[in-house]
Prior knowledge:
- One of its GO terms (cellular component) is endoplasmic reticulum.
- It comes from Gossypium tomentosum (Hawaiian cotton).
- The chain crosses the membrane at residues 38-56, 89-107, 113-130.
- This is Protein RER1.
- One of its GO terms (biological process) is protein retention in ER lumen.
- By secondary structure, the chain is mostly helical.
- The chain folds into two domains: 12-62, no CATH class; 81-136, no CATH class.
- It is built from four helices and no strands.
- It is extended.
Amino acid sequence: xxxIGGDRAPVASPLPQWGxxxxxxxxxxxxxxxxxxxxxxxGTLVIAAIYCLRVYSVQELEISDGPLLPxxxxxxxxxxxxxxPEFKFWYSMTKAFCIAFVMTFFSLFDVPVxxxxxxxxxxxxxxxxxRRQIAx
Length: 136
């Protein structure tokens, strides 16, 4: 009886085996790139540059008959001018995450907080900040 208690293991279907082999090969090369930080970042920059070139070339090749976005400052009506530029927002958010990350290494900052109180505090701060930002 070949199927029961035979010496040979059942043969897996080729598709899952191929997927597993592909995943192992991907993981192998990913592990080999781990110590090469500079080359990984250079590769990422090359990929980003290729993406930017692709977006630029598609933009140049695309012919639009419909309305276009404004290209000059005088073409657009701006009823709302932001007080906080995007870069400052990004910088503040990144700095806050970095500070919060460093604070997790010290038990001094491990203060127990009852989450409903924290949620109410966040809502009050959000409302006050947005009221000040939206106020004309």
